[in-house]
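Write out structure tokens for Trimethyllysine dioxygenase.
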Amino acid sequence: MSAPGAGHEFPAQEVSWQKRDVLLFANSIGIKADELHFLYELHPNFSVFPTYSLILPFKLTDQEVTDFYARQKAVHIPGVPDLDHRHGVDGQRKLTVLKPLPTTSAGRKFELRNKVIGVYDKGKPGTVIETEQSIVDKESGEVYTKVVSSGFLVGQGGWGGPKGPSTVNYPPPEGKAPDAVHVVQSNSETAHLYRLNGDYNPLHATPEPGKKMGFGGVIVHGLFSWNSAAHGILRELGGSNPANMKEFQARFASPVRPGDKLTTEIWRMGNVQDGYEEIRFVTKNDKGRVVLSNGRCLLKVTGTKSKLSVYPHVTITSVARILKLLPRIVPYYFLVSLEPLVPHISYDFQLAYSTQVEWAMDSHGAKELEAPLFPRWSFAVVFFSEKTASVPNASSQLPMAARFLILSPQIPQNVKIQSIEHSDSMVNIKWYDNHMALYSHDWLRAHSQGVSIKETKSVPQSQPEIQGPRRHFTPVVEPDQSPRVKYDDVMSDDKSLHVWLSHIWEQGFCFVDGVPINPEATQFLIERIAFIRNTHYGGFWDFTADLTFKDTAYTNEFLGAHTDNTYFTDPARLQLFHLLSHTEGSGGENLLVDGFAAAAQLRLENPEHYAQLVNQRQPFHASGNEDTCIQPSAMAPVFSMHSDLNTMYQIRWNNYDRAPKSNWSASEQTMWYSAARHYNDILKSREMWTKLQPGSALIFDNWRMLHGRSEFTGKRRMCGGYVNNDDYISRLRLLKFGRKAVLDNLGNVRNQSNNPYWYI
């Protein structure tokens, strides 16, 4: 049985474009200045970017702004109820290029031929409309491009239509590092520029439609992400030659918000037909959330462009200086291809390749020799750690807050360097994503591990006796399952207080509804448990974005999942937030992840990785302000084990607070980062997002729950505070067992739920 509307052809529509339209499109999707054939109309190879035809169904022949809603509502499909296209978003698109478009349609007539493949009822979520659109020379009938599109009409399902066929999936290869990475940084103007191509959907210009559709405000065009990913693949693997792209497709998995950084990871699959190789890719935002999935491209691969910018001639002495310093950029290590300099290596150093990588420096030092630098010269990172965020004396060309947003477990294992420059006092490294890091020679020497990268001690890789998190914790996976209590009950009744504290212990967090929207009531709520802990940030907080604190929590930037106070010997146990107001802006959604549940999953999937995070101790610090440099009395692991109960009871996970690991061997670096990446992937898969509202406070266990926040705009006022572990646990035990039972069981270390000491 064919789908409703299948085969229905809409009336053909004329389309046209000028050279300025081609130039605008190229600029709007991030074409670079070194791809002048897309950006300059007098270039001898001036070309249309191969995905440009996707904008023509929006633009048609217009050179003026159009009413997007009116144009969409004019469409009617036989056999399908009239649907509101104002609530439509992109689903998936597949482009097939049959012939390159000319740089202008002037002097010729082109038309859009559009037919329905099917309309599918997805129930309550909405309806999918799948169409095929072709750009055709009206006179010759020659087809230039075909696009199979699926549009999703939000909340407009349930009309009795078929669900439709399942789509073919093209996942990236498991366990293989990407062959190329392309990064695009969007901003508040990205959607406003892209819409000038002809897609004037108000969803991408003003917040009201997005709020009604549940997006919280403006989102960037899905086709911006789609086209910029196509550009990245053509640039990285196709030599920026438009003739090298035959097919390109991707599914729109998540909305992109202005300001998101989009990272496209690209894999060559190796299968080639008619000269075109299958390429797969996935695009993620800076939260690690997939925004483009099912990415596939057929491409003539011409090799990647060299991204290493160096001087055409260097002295062996200058090369030696850099290489002597690089092993000292703790904890970075590098393998270097020295093939172009093989005739001269004996003057300076040699590399011994064996099961243990070792640097051997010639005792005679460097000798002045001029040598050309060949294209085969390359750097490949073997081990890596926090970049600028971990280097107190390092500087960066990024703003202060942005310097702390590099999450080391998310750095690809094959991270690469674009360029290295050095002077008498500094080393400047430009990384694959254009991040610039500047290291002083003094800092490098102070953190040097020496030249050797010989293997030293390592953490035992298998310790099955290491137990997981404490028993009887209940993970919450959906916001609507969140435990909640009422402010008036908690403030007036100890039984309700016991319920509240028990929710925190069992589920890891709890909302308190009906809190008066003022800081005084919020402070009284925290003090219902115990006194508020004072830190170098003060006691009770009542704050807005304020960079004077030199802490990302006081900015409006994105904050990844983390625990607080990792730099204290005794991190605060509870943390409470109450949003008092958020005006003149959007964003600021709150992130929670159950670290215990993620740790238990890690232990099941890979006990060796779990053991790494239990046994390998980390240095932490808080030194953002000039008068503060806090470190715990002893280094601590990510997962802390209870010495009496033999169970994991505390997590310290904060990329922003970790310090350089100066005494780690190469093998320890490798094993720890493998474990950290694994744990980070699990954390991302278990993220739960919610939005705080005035009058509803959130309290959570900082030893268990990781928290974060999306970036936001506008004025946002928040209040809250910390509570110490001992005070919280004392209150919980007394409410649960009574004073006599607690005193009678002093010193009882039995791992039983009727033992007050078991509640840790």
